[in-house]
User: Fold this.
Amino acid sequence: MRYRCLGATLVAGLGAAFFSACGSTSPNPNTPSCTFRVALQNSSFGPSGGPGTATVSAASGCAWTASSSNDWIAIAAPAAGSGDGRVTFTVASYDGAGDRSGAIVVAKETLAIGQQGQPPGPGAPSCTFAVSQVQFYPHSYGGTAAFTVTTAPGCAWSVTTPAPWIHLNTGGGSGSGSVAMTFDPNPDRYVTDFRKGVVEVRWPTVTAGQNVQIWQYGNCNTAFFPAPGATFSAADTLSFGADGGDAHVFVLVEAPIFGCPWVVESQAAAPFNVVFPAIQAIQKGDGDLHISAPPNPSSQPRTATIVAGERTLKIVQAGR
Assistant:
């Protein structure tokens, strides 16, 4: 069972008091109240690229940083400041046919930047685009996945996501390319729904782009129960005698019992072994753990742990 600490903030007069279900803190009266105003001086560039500038207006002592979301937009050092400041960046030259879009992030504000492609001419590519897969269902433990954007050489496209739990290895490309995604673990319990996110692939044609939909399972809230012939000496503790043997443990999940996915995430080193299922092989609904233990030649007991469905099963084997 998991519990979360939810906080609340109460502001009164010129002072502020912060209250939390897990405690309380008071702000430092000497800490400045930081708000930022960011202005982009030039947001559109031709094929030759060039320099650009963004200005930051903030109170003295208010720190900020600047970063680029695309490899063709370079932030000039230093990429951080405090109070009022200026950020300079350079847009690289571009020999693609279609326009491309990117962004820089200054003081946590995303600023869109566009660049025109080369004008049409003899032999200019005809840009059509296709995405290899548009739906993904990562399990609650996170993981990785990838899709491919297929197009002609010189045809530009970009990719972004508003979901903070989805991480991309690229901001786009020119010509065909792949996009790798990494998903954070989902801490929410899986009952009837998924966590939903989107990866936005964009290109400069009348179709505008393609959204890749991500549905991530939540935690199954698993429980262990000994099958006939298996012995639990304590909660979530499987026991073997010194001679070893095989045992089965039921893995029970919350509703929907036939749909919630889980995996054996990790296994302690020998001598114990998970015969079934294989490590990281996705199971759905209630299932079975088949565990084997070889004879223990020592007079001392030995222990290990196995993690399945984010729940830890302890294994204890008696000595001789």
The domain at 125-219 is CATH 2.60.40.10 (Immunoglobulin-like). The chain has three domains: 36-121, 125-219, 223-317. The two ends are 37 Å apart (CA to CA).
